[in-house]
Amino acid sequence: MQVIKGILIFLLSTFYINLSYSQSYIKGKVIDHKTQKALAFVNIIFNDNPYCGTTSDIDGKFSFKSAVKTNKLTCSYVGYEKQDLDLTSIDTQNELIIKLHSSPKILQEVIVKAGENPANRIIRKVIKNKDLNNPEKITSFKYTSYNKDIYDIIPHDTIADDSLNIRLKTFLKGGHAFFSESVTERKFMKPDINEEVVIATKVSGFKKPSFASIGTDMQPFSFYNNMITILDINYLNPIAKGSLKKYTFRIKDTLFHKNDSTYIISFKPKMNKNIDGLTGLLYINTNKYAIENVIAEPFEKGLIDIKIQQKYSLIDNKQWFPSQLNFELILRNDPSKRFVTTVNGKTYIEKVELFPELKRSDFSIDAVSIHKLANNRDSSFWVQHRTESLNTSEKTTYRVIDSIGKRYKFDAALLVVEKLADNKITFKFMDIDITKSLIYNQFEGMRLGLGAYTNDKVLKNLSVGGFFGYGLGDHQWKYGGEFALKLNRDKEIEIKGKHQHNLKEPGGLTLNSINTVNVFDTKIYFASQMDKIKQNSISIGFRTLKYAKFNFELNHTKVSPQYDYQFQPNELQTITNYTNCDIRIKLKFAYKEKFVNSLKKRMSVGTKYPVLLLSYTKGIKGLYNSEFNFNKIEARIEQSFLSKNIGKTTFRIDGGFIDKALPYGLLFTGEGSYDKNLPLFLANYFQTVRPYEFLSDRFVNIHFSHNFGSLLYKHGKFQPHISIHNNIGWGKLSHSEYHKNIEFKTKEKGLFETGVQIDNIIKANYLNLLYLGFGAGAYYRYGPYAHTNTNDNMTIKFSMTISTK
Q1: What's the gap between Cα 470 and its chain centre?
Q2: Strand partners, 262
Q3: Do residues 450 and 438 touch, judged by C-beta distance below 8 A?
């Protein structure tokens, strides 16, 4: 009996304890009274006790449990009126919806003398502890994240007619304009080895999407890097070293906890500081002086408004780690100026594992990839990984937009986008190659043609096709056929074969063919000299050691110069047309180059380390009537990097060496871009040098530029980007007397030019989606190869840029 009594007492006491807790358990959501949007990181105090409270999360939600009965709730939030709630007359069993009103009062700036601002002392401690609290500075970690993006379209504020809003709601049946979800698994190893795999993706309107949203699409994973990149614009972090000279900080509130406190500190750029800065709130916890929450947005607005929010949790009392990421994007003026498009993205991070044992071999070359089963996850999988069930609007979005996607064939449209990313347009079982369909250069004028190749609908790993085109300027046909066999997509093992009757610019670097063809490459516009070629080639390419891409080629080429030229290596031999057979090895090594595998394509997003390109060509005399025996080596090293408070630096060093005398077309030329009829700025070329002004069989060119952005000058909306450019070249040509009937110079004494470029002098708003920036630069040629007439050394070049700010 005593045992039974003991059990009864235990059960009853447990029941009443739980009952007392249930009486003091409160949950709710804080929203903006006008917009109905959730308010993140609202300070919530109970019973006027600053040590008894909580903070809303990124979704505006909060919960509080206490053995003491709670009679009063107080909400305070920067920019909003404080609100008190009497809980004695409210049913707290249901979720509370608390609506805060924005404050009409503008707080007066407190003038604090240097050294007296308490916020600065706190920020100094935050900066001091940056490496300690930065999650990407620890040895390793793993986590799983659930991500969702919600797109909405609402009538613009200037539209008084409510019927437009009614029609939108009727059309969408109460759902959103677009909705997507994804689940990712990420692993990280110090210092910067990353891999994130999308293990599930679901997108309204699409059956098998080849893309997915992840938490870091619109913001960095953590708020500790010196530069915060948002929409491809780099903003100075308010907690970067030296930021106290660039930002103004103010303590707005203090939250008290049991063992520590949280300071709420506002930040914004100081007056007359020419920086791309952020404004918002930092929630600094006194435990390690780490970021607990952050709200940030660009201080200067562009065409697209964006705000990011991040929430951090202390894992195992060891490491502050992001637990929620959020962004709000608003496109206020669509091209019709009738609608406002909003995107709200949320990421929930869970299953965090600190310091797991990881090896380099555990990581794929792809920083982001989509699992082959990502589109086939069942409902039980999604129930397991969603932080909460889909609400009615989200369910409706899938139902409505899926039916629209089926009717209007969204998946077929996605296939078009996938092919466009590869410079192709699909027509049933054929792909039309854009790069071979419309070509312009100064020799041919406009070339009209067609390039067509079989796609995956015929054979998955084999593509066969050809091209033809007619030059309106030279009145000649060009044509060819080729095949490409992909043996291993992951290792990029591919065999190619080609036969072509075409044109080729003389003296160009084979290094330029290593990178992907860019349909917008303007260098070809300047080509006024051409060799007619009849070529057969076969190649095999593959990736090894993760960051190295090799290509082996065998080329047999018959060359006929389309300009007045003769090669006369001796009195008995004069060569105009010639045959060359060579083997070539090309290498691209980009250490820690990052790739994103999306849209069924592996795309490089670059590397912060120098990129090395090498090419070795061996000419084989006598092989298939080849006339020359030679060795040709080319090399390039290039890099771009950002420097805090200074800007972006870019350099490229090109070099080449040939050990035998060869015809003009096999040497090095074409490094100039000066053309009085086409004054366009061309990066990594000499701006004051004509395309074929210099000829070399060994050379070194150095191209250096530094873009200050708007750091040097900013006045309202006039924010020109100022950059400086220096180009230096040296070259030598053995047996220059062999080359007849053609003008050229050599540059043994050194070629020098310097310029200043000012971009965004004029900015034009294009459809309220982006800015087209127009600029100009002045470049001056000096040194041994300067022209006698000073005015001839000066040239003006024009540029165009694209931005959202």
Answers
A1: 38
A2: 255, 285
A3: no
Does residue 368 register a pLDDT over 90?
A: yes
Exposed/middle/buried for 791, CB within 10 Å: 0-12, 13-18, 19+? exposed
Q: How far apart are CA 189 and CA 362, in angstroms?
A: 10
Predicted TM-score of the model (pTM): 0.88
> Looking at residues 520-524, what average pLDDT do you find?
78
Nearest CA to 150 among 123, 192, 179? 179
Sheet of strand 49-55: strand arrangement: 49-55, 43-46, 72-76, 83-86
- What integer best gives the mean pLDDT of the chain? 90
Contacts 24+ apart (CB under 8 A), 330-335: 330/304, 330/305, 330/306, 331/303, 331/304, 331/305, 331/768, 331/769, 332/156, 332/303, 332/305, 332/768, 333/156, 333/303, 333/768, 334/768, 335/767, 335/768, 335/769
Helix or strand or coil: residue 127?
helix
Decide if pLDDT at 160 tops 70.
no
Sign of the Cα torsion 419, 331, 233, 591 reads negative
Backbone angles phi, psi at 437, to 5 degrees: -100, -25
Res 371 pLDDT > 60: yes
Cα–Cα dist 516/713, whole Å? 36
Predicted confidence (pLDDT) per residue in 663-684, tens digit = 999 999 999 999 999 999 999 9
Phi/psi of residue 195, nearest 5 degrees:
-155, 125
Give the CA-trace dihedral at 122, 127, 131, 132, to 10 degrees.
-10
Q: Which amino acid is at 506?
A: P
Going by their DSSP bridges, the two strands 630-643 and 647-658 should be labelled as antiparallel
